Amino acid sequence: MKLTFWGAARKVTGSMYLLESLGYKILIDCGSDFSDRHKVLTGGLFPFEASEIDLVILTHAHVDHSGNIPALIRAGYRGQILSTAPTAELSELLFADSAYIQRAEKKIANSAPSDYSYKPVDRFIPIAFNKDFELNERITVRLTPVGHILGAASVFVKVEEEGKTKTILFSGDVGRDNYPLLPDPEQSPQADYVLCETTYGNRVHKETEPAEEIVKRIVTEACVDKPGRLIIPAFSLGRTQSLLYTLNKLALKNELPPIKVFTDSALAAEGTNIYSKYSSLMNGEALAIKAQDESLFDFENLDHVKTFKESKNISNYLKPCIILSSSGMITGGRIQHHIRQNIQNPYCTILLVGYAVEGTIGHDLLAGKQTIRFKKRSIPVAAKIIYTDIFSGHTDVNGLIKYLGHQDKAKLKKIFLVHGEHQSMLDFEKRLHEEGYNNIEIPDYGQSYDL
């Protein structure tokens, strides 16, 4: 069995791992690499022959794990995609959105031709959580819930190879305990080898209050104490639904001020419909609210913005309000307009709720930069910039230790650290050694291991 790291190696984005056994090739995740837009625009994405891949297994729908599946199909991949049902439906939305963005970028870049006639969603084979799925007589796959977003899973692969049983666990993105809407991550089967994400491998989440208490305080300070507007950049799938759910809980308790809440993302609106469809997969609190015939996401004064014209008209709304828009890192989408229009407004508060990679406006704001650049123009920052990690979909370093704690150290042959900044991996490696783990690797891009 051979494992090659073609993405998220010593960096956060672009998850892509190639597992080979007796001629059968499985790609676990096929994500976009936000740090290399040149590859996205020119199509130089794959260091292997796409037509030789037999199967893709997808941990969850976020584009840094799924975004290059359409390109893989264009490059000649003819196989199927294995995932949970929610991941399949959420991915369909993201593929369509990514195609729109890439068409625009390719037109600007005048690069490879834009052929988006493929239908990746036709390739999906949805499978249930915690059920063994036989790929063939030698390979079995099991998906285990890990929170993070709806449908997200760890991937456990068991291979019968030359009279021996070998097992490998791909963590995917591990969610956190007590997260809005989603159940806590579940225990995966014992594995010989584990690929563990390290997004927060050297950080501990600071917030300890319930999400609704934090949001209530922020809304009061931003929109009531000083009557201004609160802008929240958030990913369309996952973060937006958690925020809407939290605002809805406040509204159900009559603790949300009577102000407009604009959700400005068509993708998020469709994603919220899918979340509602699969509400049976949510945590006990959300199920209890649903059992009372209450909506999980809809409340008075919520306005779903549909068109770009309506989006721009929000600038003319002069009363206190909340604007929830994507993307979370402020790399594209309608949020850029809202930030550009309000970044110099001292009565505006910008609430950042998640991780942002270096080189994005979100990262610059988190770093406290006094000016940001929009299309080669420097704009001073006068708005108040605040941050909360309560909506981070990734668990922290203690949660990662808990996740790995389900594995018997004596039976683990190797732990591979992926999907994190290099320093985060180094720090997490040190922590693992302190916890008694051995045989830890930090693979480089393109590095292969015979397992």
Give a quick summary of the entry.
One of its GO terms (molecular function) is RNA endonuclease activity. It comes from Cytophaga hutchinsonii (strain ATCC 33406 / DSM 1761 / CIP 103989 / NBRC 15051 / NCIMB 9469 / D465). The chain has helices spanning 37-42, 63-66, 69-74, 85-109, 211-225, 239-252, 266-277, 284-291, 308-313, 335-342, 361-366, 397-405, 422-434, and strands at residues 2-5, 17-21, 24-28, 55-57, 80-83, 124-126, 133-134, 139-145, 153-161, 164-170, 193-197, 229-233, 260-264, 302-304, 321-325, 348-352, 371-374, 377-380, 384-387, 414-418, 440-441, 448-450.
What can you tell me about this protein's structure?
- The chain is α/β, with parallel strands linked by helices and 451 residues long.
- The chain folds into two domains: 2-203 and 393-450, Ribonuclease Z/Hydroxyacylglutathione hydrolase-like (Metallo-beta-lactamase, Chain A); 211-387, Rossmann fold (3-Layer(aba) Sandwich).
- Helices cover 29% and strands 22% of the residues.
- The protein has a seven-stranded mixed beta sheet. Strands 7-8-9-10-11-20-21 form a seven-stranded mixed beta sheet, covered by helices on one side. Strands 14-13-15-12-16-19 form a six-stranded parallel beta sheet.
- 48% of the residues are buried.
